[in-house]
Design a protein that fits this description.
By secondary structure, the chain is α+β, with helices and mostly antiparallel strands. It has helices spanning 15-23, 63-80, 82-91, 109-127; strands at 27-31, 34-41, 49-54, 94-101. It has four helices and four strands; from the N terminus they run αβββααβα. A four-stranded mixed sheet has the order 1-2-4-3, sandwiched between helices.
Length: 128
Amino acid sequence: MDKNTLCKAERLCSKIQIEKLFAGGSKSFSVYPLRVVFMPMEKTEGSLASILISVPKKRFKRAVKRNRVKRQIREAYRKNKHELLHFLDEKAEGMAVAFIYLSDELVLTDEIEKKMKVLLARIIEKSV
């Protein structure tokens, strides 16, 4: 668990789980330029938290920019996920988390990382 990686098992791929996440019964809040939607799930093999990253085409028409933002968010999560995973491990449950980018402008990686720390702390706070 001390590895600083983001493997396939940590990605939210199941259409059923994604639909459940956005159908309702999930909690969400924003820390500009990110919005987070999360809900507890049953623990899947190999992963406590499954994440999904969304950068709407409405915000950035060019895929290059969308991919850059997704990379920045993924990296920020990868570096700061340990507190969340530790919390989920203690509670012995899983969580599905979606990060949605809200801004129309590109933001510096440092800025995204700061906001990610705030988001993850607030997820823990709201899950207690």
